[in-house]
Amino acid sequence: MGSAQRSDGAAPPPTGWRIWVLGARPRTLPAAVAPVLVGTAAAAGSTAAASPSAAVALRGITPWIFLCALGVAVFVQVATNYANDYSDGKRGTDDPGSRVGPPRLVGNGLATPSQVKRAVIVAFALTALCGLPLVILVQPWLVLVGVASMAAGWFYTGGPSPYGYAGFGEVFVFVFFGLVATVGSFYVQTETVTWLPVVAGAAMGALATALLVVNNLRDIPGDTASGKRTLAVRLGDQRTRWLYLALMVAPFVLLPVIAGAGGRPLAALGFVGVVLARQPVVAVLSGARGRDLIAVLAGTGRVQLVTGMLIAVGLFLSA
Fold it and tell me: Nearest 5°: phi and psi at 58?
């Protein structure tokens, strides 16, 4: 039943719990997972103890702290995705007749705005729940980081002047899903900051931003029609493709610094990601557009996840 095709050849819309999986946008979750893995692995070997339970640790890594940081990152990403769906749907900018890509909950009538707004609240509540132990047992001021992350997620497309509509979404992604997630994951383990997680955070931020750039490249026609002035709309098609290339290349330019200057040579395992990066980069530079960019989006997510995991493994084993 669930896998039957419609008469026009398209898959039928999801139902039940699958609606909420769709709204969570699983293909974007590597942007949340990879920087936490890298930031945590960069903290391996540190003599700093970040919590009373640091005795239960692996090379200086406290598992429960890692799990809390991962929960915060994943749930704030999911909340941001739901919030984006809610706000775009309410504004009418997710018109299914003009956009290309997976259906949206509100825009395609799969859920009501009030249902999606409740999903936003639940996801933000889970973010806070995961972050609470870090606030209580690591540093109280981390609540400010959590509040800032949640506010940034909501106002990306929410509120009277969403900054995502003004072309600043890429800055948000680079800062929060690159620098903040990576450096924050390092900090909660060590209660200090060094240059290593900052450089690693820039690498992860570039890949996370590449995800958004290719998504917005795909949506240029629909966003232009609906008045969304994303960075891709402002730059235009060709320059957005060059920006995507730069963002995909940047992490591998930074990798020798992370592995060599950081004294963690096995982090060079991340260069395996170059192999995976070839296909989506070639597709973008070859002029892929519309539905062809959906596969590029998935491929970019794989590059980020695999590269991040291999860098993390290398950082951990070299500690």
Answer: -130, 110
Say what the alpha-carbon torsion angle 212, 214, 219, 224 is, to the nearest 10 degrees: 80
What digits encode the pLDDT tens for the residues 50-77?
444 444 457 789 999 999 999 999 999 9
Please enumerate in sequence order all residues whose Cβ is within 8 A of that of 1, keeping only pairs 6 or more positions apart, or say none: none
Q: Which two tokens stand for residue 122?
A: 């639940």
Q: Contact, 273 vs 267, CB < 8 A?
A: no
Q: Residue 251: left if φ>0, alpha if ψ -120 to 50, beta else—which one?
A: alpha
Alpha helices (runs of H) in 9-62, residue ranges in sequence order: 17-24, 30-42
Give the whole-angstrom CA distance, residue 49 versus residue 142: 17
What does the block give as tokens for 129?
A: 């729940």
For residues 70 and 33, the answer to whether their CB atoms sit within 8 Å is yes
Tokens linked to 208: 């996370």
Pairwise CA distance, residues 29 & 192, whole Å? 27
Q: For 7-38, what is each residue's pLDDT tens digit?
A: 344 566 777 888 999 999 888 888 899 999 99
- Amino acid (1-letter code) at residue 224: T
- Rounded to whole angstroms, how far apart are CA atoms 217 and 232? 6
pTM: 0.88
Distance separating alpha carbons of residues 222 and 116, to the nearest angstrom: 22
Per residue in 207-233, is it b (16+ CB within 10 Å) or e — as a string? bbbbbbbbbbbbbbebbeebebebbbb
Q: Is 162 left (phi over 0), alpha (psi -120 to 50) or beta?
A: beta
